[in-house]
Amino acid sequence: MTDVLTAIAQVAILVFVLASMIGLGLSLTVQQILTPLKDVKLVVLGLVTSFVVAPAAAWAIAALFGLSDSQSLGLLLLGVAAGAPFLPKLAQLAKGEVPYSVGLMVLLMVVTVAYVPLVLPLLVDGVTVSAWDIARPLLLLMLLPLAVALAVRARYPESAKLAPILNRVSTTALALGIGSAVLVGLPQIWDQVGTGVLLATLLFTAVCLVVGWLLGGSGRAQRSVTSLGTAQRNLSAALLIAGTSFVDTPEVLVTVMVASLLLTAALLLVAAELGKRSGTSTPSTTRS
Questions:
Q1: Which residues make Cβ contacts (< 8 Å) with residue 139, sequence separation at least 6?
Q2: What is the pLDDT of residues 64-99, one digit of tens each?
C-alpha cells in the first residue's frame, strides 16, 4: 500500500508541476512577468530574504531547539534552497500579484542553482553538490514548460482559454499529491514528535513569512508574494541533496521530508487566510 501511495504522490506532484507551469505560461505574458522585476529594490530585498535571512534563520532556530547535527542539516538544506513551482499557486490562494510570483519563482530558481553548490560546502564540511543535478529538474520540469507555454501564448493568444482548465487540474493534482505524501510520511512525522523538528519548522516558517512581509514590497499583493516566496523553499532541491549527498545519514532526508510536509501545510493555511482577508478578487493573469 505504501508503494502505491508513493507512486500516486510522485505522479500527482509531477502533474501539478507541469500543469501549473503550462497554465501560468498560457495565462501570462513575458512582459507581465518581467515588469515587477524591474523594481531593483524589490528584487534585492527578495534575494536577501531568501538567501540571507532564511539560511540564517534555519541555522539559528536549529541551535535554539538543540536539534541533532542531522536534523540541523536538514533544516539548513531548506534554508539555502529557494524557488518552487508551488509559489504561484500560493499567490493565487492569497490573492497576491501572480505575475510577480512567477517572476520571483524563476529568479529564485536560477539563483539557487548557482548559490547552493557554492554556499553549502562552506557551511558543511566535506559536502559537494552538483549544480547540474539541481538545475536539471528545474529546467526540464519547470522552466522549459513555462517557456514553451509563454511562446505558445504569444503566438496564439486564444490558447489562454486553456489556462483555467489547467489550473483546476493542477489544484486537484496538488491535493492528491499532498494527501498521499502525508499518508506515506505519517510514521516519520510521528517519530519526529518531541524532537523539536516540528516546532523548529513552524518557527522557521513564521520568521520567513514575517521578514518577507516586512521587506517585500509596497502593497499587500506584493508583500504577500514575497512573504510566501521567502517561506516556500525549494523542496525538490533540498530532498535531492539530502538523498544524494547524505546517504550515510538518513535522518537528514527524514528531517527534510517531514519539514517539507509541515511547511507546505502551514503555507497553504496562511495563503488561504491571506486570501480571505484581502477583500479583493484574485488579480487578473490574463491581461496582456
A1: none
A2: 999 999 999 999 999 999 988 889 999 999 999 999
Cell of 69: 547535527
Q: What angle do CA 210, 216, 222 make, to 5 degrees?
A: 115
Question: CA distances (Å), 87 to each of 106, 123, 227, in order?
Answer: 10, 27, 10
φ and ψ of 82, to 5 deg: -125, 165
Distance CA 177, CA 8 (A): 7
* Grid coordinates belonging to 83: 524557488
CB atoms within 10 A of CB 124: 17
| Residue 249 DSSP symbol | -
Bridge partners (DSSP) of residue 233 are 82
31-39 contacts at long range (C-beta below 8 A, 24 or more positions apart): 31/288, 32/99, 32/285, 32/287, 32/288, 33/99, 33/102, 33/103, 33/106, 33/150, 34/103, 35/99, 36/97, 36/99, 36/100, 36/103, 36/104, 36/222, 37/100, 37/103, 37/104, 37/107
pLDDT digits (tens, 9 = 90+) for 103-156: 999 999 889 988 998 898 888 877 778 888 878 888 888 889 999 999 999 999
The three grid cell numbers given for residue 147, joined into one nine-digit string: 517557456
Residue 33 half-sphere exposure toward CB, CA atoms < 13 A:
18
Cell numbers 493568444: residue: 157
